[in-house]
Amino acid sequence: MQQAAALGRVLALSGGVVDVRFDTGPLPAIHNALDVLWDETLPLVLEVEAALNEHTVRTVALQETLGLARQAPVRDTGAPLAVPVGEALHGRLVNVLGPPGDGAAAIGDDAPRRVIHQAPLPLSKRRAAVEVSETDIKISTRSRDWRWTARPPCSAVWALARPCC
Q: Which pLDDT tens digit goes with each residue over 72-113?
């Protein structure tokens, strides 16, 4: 359910955590997206994480906050973050907001979108089977301080990526 866009101001900021005060109207809902209305070329989107009191919310910035100052105006979008999904996204690199980072054309507005915070599947819909998930990401299980007592097997993964044969 979308509400009227409430206007607020940046009250405090510490790195990626930004407190926003809304003097009038209802507070934005948890997980709502807030747009910072500033003069920078890149937009700044905040996501509401907690209500601190009846006028203030704590948010997390989804981009760099360099240049953000207290009293900067902020507008509630009235909706949670949503990203494009489906066929339009296959083979694409996008950030959490949906704009492409691969240099290709923008994803069309006709692409379906899904809210990033979803309710979990009910237990009856989950599978209990153990499956191997192939990601092509290699993870070392050896500590950097690990010392071999004998020559390691050739298939061992070293934390320091040294050849073993």
A: 999 999 999 888 888 888 888 887 777 888 888 888 888 898
Specify the CATH architecture of the domain 7-80: Beta Barrel (2.40)
Query: Residue 91: how many CA atoms within 13 Å on its side-chain side?
Result: 4
Nearest to 105 by CA among 89, 121, 81: 89
Residue type, 146: W
pLDDT of the residue at 137: 59
The pTM is what?
A: 0.69
Helix (H, G, I), strand (E, B), or coil: what is residue 124? helix
What is the torsion angle, in degrees rounded to the nearest 10, for the CA atoms of residue 43, residue 48, residue 52 and residue 58? Answer: -40
**What is the distance between the alpha carbons of residues 116 and 31, in angstroms, rounded to a whole number?**
9
pLDDT band at 126, cuts 50/70/90? confident
The confidence score (pLDDT) of residue 61 equals 94
Instruction: Count the neighbouring beta carbons within 10 Å of the beta carbon of residue 32.
Output: 21
The one-character DSSP state at 87 is: G
